[in-house]
Amino acid sequence: MPLAFAALVLLGGGLGLALLWIGELEGFAAGGIFFVHVPVALSAYALLVWGAWKALRLLWTRDERYDLESYTGIHVGLIFALLTLVTGSIWARAEWGVWWDWRDRQLVTFLILFLFYSAYFMLRYSLEQGPARARISAVYALFGVVLIPVSFLAVRLAEQFLHRTPLIRAGRPDIEGTVLGVFGVCFAGALALAASMYAIELAGKRLDARLQEAR
Amino acid sequence: MTYLRDAAALARKDLLLELRGKETVPAMVLFVVAVFVAFRFALPQGQERAAGGLLWVAIVLTALLGLVRAFVPEREQGVLDALVLAPCDRSAIWLGKVLSVLAFLLIAEAAALPLFALFFEPVDAATVAAVLLANVGLSAIGALLAAMAVAGRAREVLLPLMFLPLAVPVVIGGVGATVTDDPARYLGFLALYDGIFAILAWATFEYVVTE
Amino acid sequence: MSYTWAAYLVVLVAVLVWVGIIALKLRRLERDVRELPRHD
Lengths: 215, 211, 40
Known about the structure:
Number of helices of chain B: 9
Structural class of chain B: mainly alpha
Radius of gyration of chain A: 19 Å
Largest sheet of chain B: none
Structural class of chain A: mainly alpha
Distance between the termini of chain B: 27 Å
Order of helices and strands of chain A: HHHHHH
Low-confidence stretches of chain B: none
Oligomer: heterotrimer
Mean pLDDT of chain A: 84
Number of domains of chain A: 1
Largest sheet of chain A: none
């Protein structure tokens, strides 16, 4: 609960600061999105890596409780990935007038990852509950976390034959003191939101599992 | 050495089954030809240059077709459980399957690439090298994902959903090697992909098949 | 400005939807607990 409260304060405060104090970043049509899009994207990576770490622990120790933790990390990570796609799409619309631009590396990478991790749920639901499902899901989660850098690299490589015209992006916004500070607050807020959603979701899933045992 | 012999024996079993049943390879060849024909009509005048990209879509889809049934005979006859109990390293099961899938894919491509040259445009050495490299990666991830999918209820539906996003980097590397003037970096990327995912699949396969 | 607001709203709505789903789940869990057969 304190975590959820911190998330509320940090994210709300950070975005408020971004709106009031910094206003619009120079060179951006809607630079304010930077303060929500990038922290959410980084939190999505953090959650997916967390889920893969728990998956690795499961395979390593054969301790069943890591299964739910890995599953929850990926579940919340997928929500964050979806939010990254939506806010990124809004950013593209504000910046270049289109809802989707294949030149945006980050968005294309996230689309590949989103598709891959969506199949994680299909896989889980298609398997019988038990240690086999836990292990297969864990292996899949490991593949996902390896796919992150590989697809990132691939999307960068693809630019050279897909787009003759590079994306005109005003670079990363000038990271100066105040911008960096506000961004830090927003990032901490997004991480706190991720962590609290993870904790609540995990508690719910554990309760569900215990109840099924009790039946 | 026994490890390699085990894997080779398993691959040989798949090839013998295929020789007898002829279920997979003819289907793959017919499929890739049909895909070419369908693609020809997806390329209006002036767009023929896109054929190099379509070759890669055709290869990935053909590999997928070959993989869908890769572990089905084992699962249906209960052979997989017996293999897991057998006194051989479990990753040898994976290696054997990779070898047989690779062989099927090579046969299908031996028919597909000349046909592609006939229908669309000549195939250069870089493309052939990229195809050979891509085969390794596609079989490596494919054999593992097929073993995963076959354990579940929705196996035929599930495999493409897992396989295609994972194969997108292969498509990127392959198309890059086919259409650009500087294929070396794309071939390097494909080799990197093969190495990373082959090691990962080899290391994790035993967790997928143990009950 | 409006696009920035839209992005913030999207995140807010997503979190609210998630809270709603969790609340529904909790209620279902509560009901399931009540319907558990008693052994005393």
